[in-house]
Amino acid sequence: MEPVTERDIRSSFVNCSKGDAKRLPVPRDLDDRPWDDLDFLGWSDPSLPGRCYLVTPSDDGLVGVALRYET
Length: 71
What we know:
Layout: H1 6-12, H2 18-23, E1 41-44, E2 51-58, E3 61-68
Antiparallel strand pairs: 1-2, 2-3
C-alpha cells in the first residue's frame, strides 16, 4: 500500500457523511506505518467500543468504510 495522509483517509469514506468522516479518529502514527507491508489500513476507535475503520486502495483510489461490531 502507498502511504496516505489524514486528508486522503477522510475523503475516502463511502458509507458515512462528510461530517462523520471529519470527526472520526485517524491514527496519529501514519508516518511510522510499514506501508510497503500493508494491503489495507485498519484501526479501531478507542472512544466508541464496537467501531472500527478500514481503508484500502482500489483502481479508482482509496475506499474507506466504517464498521460496527457487537462488543
